[in-house]
Design goal:
By secondary structure, the protein is α/β, with parallel strands linked by helices. It has five helices and five strands. Helices cover about 40% and strands about 20% of the residues. The longest helix is centred in the middle third of the chain and has 19 residues.
């Protein structure tokens, strides 16, 4: 119900959409590749911090270390919170990752970059929203791509950390929406 209230009351303008596209394009141009735990990956986290802050968000960096099949790596998640005046209001969480598959030169334009741009556009939209009916948390995760093969100890480090963050805050979360691979016109995925 809350997510419907959020969607019904929020206007995502053409300017928000243009900002989302521009920031996705700029992320690809300036920060490819964005392998987690590398200097370009760190640069991408600062790019997102700057872009989301410029859009009006109060963005917090969360840098953490985790053991991977390639050794210990440092990752950075980013969080932007939009709170209503109602202390009992539930939270809607929208998550996107920004890292690229390690060891490739893939720009991740239709993957992490497109959804990173979307979240930056949402920051702009929520900053201009006059009557929030609930709480929103936007999360950019790092370290979602696996180093070798997805498994309990390979990949999804940023999501695991974000779940710990939410549990530590004891938030009443109504919905978590994970956006990924948004930019492909004819997406086909074989599982």
């Amino acid at each position: 119900m809350l997510s419907l209230l959020l969607a019904a009351a929020l206007e995502f303008t053409p300017q928000d959409a243009q900002l989302a596209f521009a920031k996705a394009h700029e992320l690809v141009e300036k920060c490819t590749p964005r392998d987690a735990g590398t200097n370009p990956g760190r640069s991408a986290s600062f790019f997102i911090l700057d872009a989301a802050s410029a859009a009006g968000g109060d963005v917090r960096r969360d840098t953490f270390k985790a053991m991977t099949p390639a050794g210990e790596k440092e990752f950075t998640n980013l969080y932007a919170e939009f709170k209503s005046d109602d202390a009992s209001a539930r939270w809607v969480v929208v998550v996107s990752h920004y890292d690229t598959k390690p060891g490739t030169n893939c720009p991740g334009a239709n993957d992490g970059a497109s959804t990173t741009g979307l979240l930056i556009g949402l920051v702009n939209a929520f900053t201009n929203w006059q009557t929030p009916k609930g709480n929103l948390l936007l999360v950019w995760t790092d370290g979602e791509e696996c180093m070798r093969a997805y498994g309990p100890d390979d990949g999804l480090w940023g999501s695991k950390r974000a779940a710990e963050y939410l549990a530590g805050k004891e938030r009443k979360v109504q919905a978590v929406i994970c956006v990924d691979m948004l930019g492909d016109r004819d997406l086909e995925i074989s599982i």
